[in-house]
Amino acid sequence: MTAPPAIELDSVTVGYDRRTVCRDVSLRVAEGSFTVFIGPNGCGKSTLLRTVARVLRPTEGRVAVLGRDVRGYSRRQYARTVGLLPQGIEAPAGMTVTDLVLRGRHPHRSPLSRWTAQDEQAVSSALDVTGTTGFGDRILAELSGGQRQRAWLAMLLAQDTPILLLDEPTTYLDIAHQYEVLDLLADLHAGGRTVVAVLHDLNQAARYATDLVVLRGGHVAETGHPATVLTPDLVADVFGLRCRIVPDPVTGTPAVFPEPSRPHPTGSAPAGG
Ligand SMILES: Nc1ncnc2c1ncn2[C@@H]1O[C@H](COP(=O)(O)OP(=O)(O)OP(=O)(O)O)[C@@H](O)[C@H]1O
User: Fold this and answer.
1) How many CA atoms lie within 13 A of 270 on its CB side?
2) Domain ABC transporter, which positions (predicted)?
3) How far is 238 from 215, CA to CA, in rounded Å?
4) Is ligand 1 within 6 A of the CB of residue 105?
């Protein structure tokens, strides 16, 4: 018998109040995949991710995780199965990084239980791999955007779920830290987790994704392996950008280079060498 998909959306319609954002979306995310959602601003990427995370409830259709309707999970079971790194979240005033990361362990503890060695190990490992150990005692609100983003990621890692949802996890990060986070997600994926991330950088998406989900206007425009999905026609169609696609010189995955929309300001490309 084949395993059920990690995530399955079946004719899902979802939005905010009376405003529908995604209509009749059906989608399967394979277990153990590194799936990346791409698409223009406002196309519904975060809305779909939040729907999978049960933050938003579809008005029609069904969402299943590991073969089970998400409505059948208790809150605690769900928090042990699916972790979400949302966009632009605020921490409670005065909270330290370690306090935040400890919160990731809540779904694994009963209300009156003490911290176990496993909790402590999960927290210290999460701080370690995200490079946040050095500022564990600092107040979150007093950190830089990138430091804060890594602290939230540490909380997600401490939650230790088989499915991770990440909404623009590289926001605020400098280029080295962006690739550090993406490599960390690749390691989690290699270790068997299902990773679903929203990314804006198409070249990063193509480097790391096993599967791309291209969204446009609340619909799935295309899904598949980056090498087949990412074409100049798709980028023109979905993003309205004329581009060339060449093999990334480092990884061989598709790399997108926009065609100039007007002549280069100096009249030619900068001289090389
Ligand atoms: N809390 C909200 N209340 C009402 N409308 C919302 C809310 N959040 C998002 N929307 C609307 O839903 C639509 C889809 O937004 P969503 O955040 O899912 O897009 P996105 O693809 O993630 O965009 P971006 O790339 O800009 O982050 C947008 O038109 C947005 O204005």
Assistant:
1) 2
2) 7-242
3) 8
4) no
CATH 3.40.50.300 domain range(s) in the chain:
1-81+162-229
Going from the Cα of 46 to the center of ligand 1, the distance in angstroms, rounded, reads 7
CA 142 to chain centre: 25
* Residue type at position 39: G
Contact 149, 171 (CB under 8 A): yes
44 Cα: distance to centroid of ligand 1 (angstroms): 6
CA 50 to ligand 1: nearest atom: 18
The closest of 100, 93, 91 to 127, measured between CA atoms, is 100
* Closest approach atom of ligand 1 to CA 43: 21
| Measured distance CA(95)–CA(100) in Å, rounded | 7
Whether 21 lines ligand 1, by a CB cut-off of 6 Å, is yes
- ipTM, two decimals: 0.98
Place of tokens 């619909």: 219
What the block records as the tokens of 134 is 């050095």
Contacts 24+ apart (CB under 8 A), 171-178: 171/87, 171/145, 172/144, 172/145, 172/146, 172/148, 173/146, 173/149, 174/146, 177/131, 177/146, 177/150, 178/204
- 63-103: per-residue pLDDT in tens? 999 999 999 999 999 999 999 999 877 778 899 999 999 99
pTM over 0.90? The answer is yes
Q: In CATH terms, is domain 1-81+162-229 a member of 3.40.50.300?
A: yes
